[in-house]
Design brief:
It is built from two helices and no strands.
Length: about 70
C-alpha cells in the first residue's frame, strides 16, 4: 500500500475550501503570492501535522489575431 499525503490536501481540505481559497485564484486580479500564503495558513490551521506544498502559476493566453483575418 502506498500512502501519500500533504498538509494542503489531507482530510479533504481543498475539497472543503475550494470556493473560498482556490476559485478566487482563477481571477487575473488576484494576487497569487497572497493566495498561496492563504492556502499555507489554512493548511497549517487544519493539517499542521504534515508538510505543506503549494505552487501557483498564472498563464495568460492571448489569441493570435493574425489568424483571425
Amino acid at each position: 500500500m502506498i500512502y501519500q499525503s500533504d498538509g494542503l490536501t489531507d482530510n479533504d481540505l481543498l475539497e472543503t475550501y475550494w470556493q473560498s481559497h482556490i476559485d478566487p485564484m482563477l481571477s487575473s486580479q488576484t494576487n497569487l503570492d497572497q493566495s498561496v500564503a492563504g492556502l499555507i495558513e489554512l493548511a497549517n490551521q487544519y493539517n499542521g501535522h504534515d508538510n505543506i506544498t503549494a505552487i501557483a502559476v498564472r498563464a495568460k493566453v492571448r489569441p493570435n489575431l493574425d489568424q483571425l483575418q
